[in-house]
User: Fold this.
Amino acid sequence: MEFVILGFFAVGYLILAGADIGIGMLLPYLGRTPAERREVIAAIAPFFLGNEVWLVSTAGVLAGLFPHVEGTLMGGPNFLAVVGLVTAWIVRDMGLWLRGRLPGARWQAFWDGAIVAGSWGLALAWGTLLSSILIGASWPLAILPAAAVAALFAMHGLAFASLRLTGELRARARVLSPGAEWHTYLLTAGVLTAVGILAGFRLPLEPVNAWLVPVILIIIPFLVASQAWVWWVFRHRVTGPSYL
Assistant:
């Protein structure tokens, strides 16, 4: 059961937040004017904070049920990747929150750049960590597998954007979805799921603190219900800018 809980949160993060990361990576392609970029960001605005809860939950499960694995993942050759991941996470979120706080074009362009740089940093940091877990590759040998994971995030973001946007923005996002848009999203989500599960099998998972399992199982329905509520409220396609 401990392994299922960890996989549930980790895969949930990769699928949900992977779309946010991918859209941020391709923001200059999807949104070619300040107004278009505002609309593209509106596609992820209702979701990105809730999606990050899945990463916090994954870290909590690791610390509580697999403390020795947490040390393995965050130490040694992975330390720099973890530092890069946290730094990119902060930069990306600062960009999302601050871009709309002042009206100046230079101000917004600077924070749009922060969103793009932070999103690429997140994708490459996750790619480095996952390649280290899956094939034992370390820097600089991890460059190619890390780039492959980043490309997967980008494709997942395009698929999600095609489901959320309209008009010309939707047409740009559909470059990988000539047919049904949901098919592309499910395909990229399936590949991310496979990557997450394979990485889990490569970790030396030996659970402790089994008494935490009932507590986590009680929390999971509330997390899923709140996520489902947000998706239902914001289920319609984006037609204008958001509060960000």
The mean pLDDT is 90. The two ends are 39 Å apart (CA to CA). The CA atoms of residues 90 and 209 lie 31 Å apart. The chain has eleven helices and no strands.
